[in-house]
Amino acid sequence: MSKTIIALDFSTAEEVVEFLKPFEEPVYVKIGMELTYGAGLDIVRTVKEMGHHIFLDLKLHDIPNTVKGGMKNLAKLGVDLVNVHAAGGIEMMKAAVAGLEEGAAGAKRPLCIAVTVLTSVSKEAMNDQLGIPGEVQDTAIRYALNAKAAGLDGVVCSVHEAASVHEACGKDFLTVTPGIRLASDSKDDQKRVATPDYAKEQGCDMIVVGRSITKSADPYGTYRKIEEMMN
Ligand code: C5P
Fold first, then answer.
1. Measured between alpha carbons, how far is 95 from 210 in angstroms, rounded to an integer?
2. pLDDT of amino acid 2
3. Which pLDDT score is estimated for 188?
4. Which residue's CA is minimally distant from atom 14 of ligand 1?
């Protein structure tokens, strides 16, 4: 299984199909809100029919019963990985797993990971606006432990948190990390970026890469290069 998840941050199915043409072997892609709300959930079926693995990044966050029902239907789409906000609490995360199991109906359920603290949230915003005292890193670890207690498979975290998450939750607990750039690339709007080599060094299990691949002159070649760095 590839360790690089390509973020398909496009708005239409046509752009996705065109972009994926050179990718002959199955790759792991991330379908997020932009694409889902632009192209509809049919895009999941389209990409699946092309043989690719799918991380459906819809970050569910609601009362447990609603998340359970939502996850049940997402599992029926046959995606490989889904996520929730850990801020929804342990009961909500347990409901997410229960919904996925019900939807998978005996087949292997999609993996489920939790977003800890959004990387766009600063310590000041977390303390003053969200009312959570202390350091962001401590909240992220606490949320990761909650996710593990709820039976989730891992978390989305920054490269800089991956090692502490593994230390707290065990090496088999998945760390999926965005904010990756090749040394030669622009940072775009990302504040703290890291290279695939550094992500590997920090023990990140999978990396999410968007623009470094999608805006590259040779997306497939760049993907292969990054995948080699991670393996
Ligand atoms: O283009 P780039 O590599 O920056 O894209 C990163 C992808 O990961 C985007 O789809 C972005 O929404 C997502 N992401 C992120 N930072 C987070 C969570 C998700 O960049 N904390």
1. 30
2. 83
3. 81
4. 178
Binned at pLDDT 50, 70 and 90, residue 133 comes out as very high
Q: What is the pTM of this model?
A: 0.95
- Superfamily of segment(s) 4-230: Aldolase class I (3.20.20.70)
- Shortest CA distance to 71 belongs to which of 13, 28, 111? 111
Give residue 168 CA to ligand 1 midpoint distance, Å.
Answer: 24
CA distance 214 to 223: 9
Domain ranges of the chain: 4-230
Distance 77 CA to ligand 1 centre (A): 23
List 48, 59, 94, 123, catalytic entry: 59
Write out pLDDT tens, residues 27-43. Answer: 999 999 999 999 999 99
pLDDT (0 to 100) of residue 195: 95
Active site residue 59: yes
**Distance separating alpha carbons of residues 105 and 174, to the nearest angstrom:** 24
Pocket of ligand 1 (CB under 6 A): 7, 9, 32, 118-119, 156, 178-179, 188, 190, 208-212
Q: Using CA atoms, how far apart are residues 227 and 197, in angstroms rounded to an integer?
A: 10
**Structure tokens that stand for 92 in this block:** 């909500």
Distance of alpha carbon 5 from the chain centroid: 8
**119 CA distance to ligand 1 middle (Å):** 9
| The ligand 1 atom nearest the CA atom of 189 | 4
Residue 190 predicted with pLDDT over 80: no
